[in-house]
Amino acid sequence: MAYPQLAVLPSAAKRIRHHDCWVFRDELAAPLEPAAHGAVVELVDPHAAFLAYAFYSAHSHVAARVVSTDRSAAVDRALFARRLTAAMSRREGLRGTNARRLVFSEADGLPGLIVDQYGDVLVFQSRTAGLEPWKPLIVELLRDALRPAGVLERSDKEFRDAEALPAVTQVHTGCVPERVRIEEDGLQFWVDPYHGQKTGFYLDQRDTRSRVRGLIRAGERVADVFAYTGSFGIGAAARGARVVCVEQQESCLALARENARLNGLEEQIEHVAGDAFYWLEAKAGGRERFDWVLLDPPSLAKSRAEAFKGRRALHHLLVQALALLAADGTLVLSVCTYHLLGVVEEILRIAAAERGVRLRVRAVTMQATDHPWVLQMPMTRYLMSWTVQRDG
Ligand SMILES: C[S@@+](CC[C@H](N)C(=O)[O-])C[C@H]1O[C@@H](n2cnc3c(N)ncnc32)[C@H](O)[C@@H]1O
């Protein structure tokens, strides 16, 4: 099949040959052959040599996302079937849960496609115009492969604005209940696939949750700050800890309370509705101290331009959080702000100096293994957690 050809600058051609998947708009060489928003295009180098098939976006600053660098493999039904099958088989070894990310965008060779499994329900997001015409096929292939009870599309506005696509929440096949019960590490959680953050649950924190849970001991005091639906706090309570969960959104906290009850742990968990920044400040000025402070803030900088603001916010959080630690207490700091990942250790050092504490690093963990990242695309590694213990 003949696709519109787009020539890219030598620098972009080199990156694509080295397995990067993105071409920025200012890397397209003029004159451009006209291509429709969302069309499959053929990327070529300045000498017209084939580079890749890609999804073209007329709106995003990422003008093209590579789908295939194999000239003989057109973007068709067979390619989607192969990519979905491979993505699912990569997750087959994941044990101890019935909730997982099945497809993670560029890392699985399907730019813009997220598919999460919650028991017998699938939730997907389409984040690129290029994927839009393929959605019925994606649903059909998922249905045939997994026989789910239902497939919900949760393509939220925040991921679609850049591609000038409207938000979509739609059940494509079967039935998707308002709440789905999942299991992780022997614990149960309610997930709200229609309104919850992400597609309903922070699947990407599974590995860090499990590791932290394994370190917590009965009777310890744990602060789960920015708790969402309480997954970290519930894991800690299951180990016999006494927990306080702090969360701003009442709907999340309501689910956190239900999740605590679902696991018979409500006696051990206090739920506090409010702004975590104020809560930390108030506690830092008081006498109560914690053996664990789990800090998992939302993104603190959406762009490089906001990085300085994000850095200040993170520094402020850390100075307060360190004050809350008991002697030998441990802080687990999770950062999902790509623009801050490179400076977290420096900010930790500065905050520790201000509090006069020495910190021992117990672990540095990443997004869970069903959220793999592409080594050639550093921005696909977006979540890291530092487990640091106060030295005395
Ligand atoms: C990254 S999520 C936490 C995910 C959670 N640790 C988990 O694994 O399920 C961040 C949470 O912080 C909440 N949040 C955002 N700003 C807040 C604030 N100022 N105070 C308290 N919570 C806030 C959000 O509603 C969201 O639930």
How do you describe this structure in short?
This protein is an alpha/beta fold and 392 residues long.
Shape: globular
CATH architecture of the largest domain: 3-Layer(aba) Sandwich
Cofactors, ions and other ligands in the entry: S-adenosylmethionine
Task: Name the beta content range.
Answer: 25-35%
The CATH class of the largest domain: Alpha Beta
CATH-assigned fold name of the largest domain = Rossmann fold
Structure notes:
This protein has helices spanning 10-17, 77-90, 135-146, 157-160, 206-215, 231-238, 250-262, 276-284, 307-324, 344-355; strands at 5-7, 22-24, 40-44, 50-56, 62-68, 99-104, 113-118, 121-126, 150-155, 168-174, 180-184, 187-191, 221-225, 242-247, 269-273, 290-295, 325-335, 359-366, 384-390. By secondary structure, the chain is α/β, with parallel strands linked by helices. It folds into three domains: 5-68, Archaeosine Trna-guanine Transglycosylase, Chain: A, domain 4; 77-180, RNA methyltransferase domain (HRMD) like (Transcription Regulator spoIIAA); 202-390, Vaccinia Virus protein VP39 (Rossmann fold, 3-Layer(aba) Sandwich). The strands form four sheets. Strands 15-14-13-16-17-19-18 form a seven-stranded mixed β-sheet, sandwiched between helices. The chain has a five-stranded mixed β-sheet with strand order 1-3-4-5-2. A five-stranded mixed β-sheet has the order 6-7-8-9-10. Helix 3 links the parallel strand 8 (121-126) and strand 9. Helix 2 (77-90) crosses helix 3. The mean pLDDT is 96. It binds S-adenosylmethionine (SAM). S-adenosylmethionine binds next to helix 6, strand 14 and helix 8.
